[in-house]
Amino acid sequence: MGNWWLQSNKLQRAVDAGAHAGAVFLPGNVPQAKIKARTEAARNGFDDGILAGSADPRVKSLVVEQMPNPYQLRVESTIEIDNYFLALVGMDTQTITRDAVGEFEVPIAMGSPENKIGDDPETGHTGSQFWINIAGPNATKISGDRYAAKVCPTSVARCTGTVKPGIQNDDYALDGYFFTMNVKSVDPGKDLILQAYDGAMSYVGDHCTSRTFPTAAQRSYLAGLRYPDAVARYEGGETDWCSGDQDIAGSSVHTTFIVREPDSTPWSVTDNPVVATATCSPQTLPSFNTSGTRIFEMLDPNDGKYNGQSDLNPPYGTWTFASVFRRWATLCVIPRFGVGRRVHRAGANQREFTRSSPVRLERQRRWPQPPVAQSRLRPTGSGGP
Q1: Dist. CA 121–CA 125, nearest whole Å
Q2: Which residue of 3, 253, 312, 327 is most buried, as measured by CB atoms within 10 A?
Q3: Structure pTM?
Q4: Do residues 55 and 49 touch, judged by C-beta distance below 8 A?
Q5: What is the rounded radius of gyration, in angstroms, for the C-alpha atoms of the chain?
Q6: Contact between 373 and 204 (Cβ < 8 Å)
Q7: Are 378 and 116 in contact (CB under 8 A)?
Q8: Residues 218-255: pLDDT tens digits?
Q9: Calpha distance 63→269 (Å, rounded)
């Protein structure tokens, strides 16, 4: 009886380990889930021989199956063990069966049910006052970004400086941030367009009062040129258009957005091929020096100072101040897009950028200096959200 109890516990641990190890590959890769489940059961002492070809004679069966809930994996094993004292009364063996169910819990959706994440001042949808905020690596962790800031003293939680060489913040994410988009319906023949609002670093301060914005007369002048809504769009202070880009240890920083193709491993967000087409490729937005009266000067096409920065529609891959400052900039166009799951990623100040079936957009901050910058993301032109 004691041996029954001992072997039952060992078998239960084996099927538990198999179910838990295999479930992480669900729902998209059932074959790998089954391989992993059998591998872990074998490591715990119960090998049915399907993988290695050397079966444990005690194992009579090992069943691995996906449950009706596609995120659950069931592992059941039956073994036959020899009895010792009970053999004296004719009970030579005992059959024991144990099973376990492992479940992969998908991440909680924390985005937006609409085709945008964050406010949209162009349409007047600004009630949420919600922004996507990302720090540069030289920013301090205590300023608010747990994963994108490298700098923090040892007195701050998880700042031992021993996890990643040369980085004080143990939580620093080398791969940056990801954003996933699910396209549930499409209008036939329409393109999928991914945009970012104020995606470049343009230091203006938390309340858009740290730089000199165009005066009322200057904004009226700009409205008569190529910016019809310049009076409202380029007003300083806490307006709906304010992005709040902040300088923490510098404001000269580039922002890179990367879109990745769908693949067959929706549980993994690091292995999708980078999209590189004529209308959708990795895009690096420069930072813009907004000191003095440069905001107005970069918007004015006639003052002879920074006239090239006033182009609202430069060629794809060329970014001017006017095309990104307080505007939705088109980062990627996927022609005649279909229904599916698309993922975007954002990161900060990486030297190189590598980051389901998803397309992926990565947002990253580059050297030399890392501030805090804010933007909003939206896809358009594809039908429903």
Answers
A1: 6
A2: 253
A3: 0.69
A4: yes
A5: 28
A6: no
A7: yes
A8: 999 999 999 999 999 999 999 999 988 988 877 788 88
A9: 30
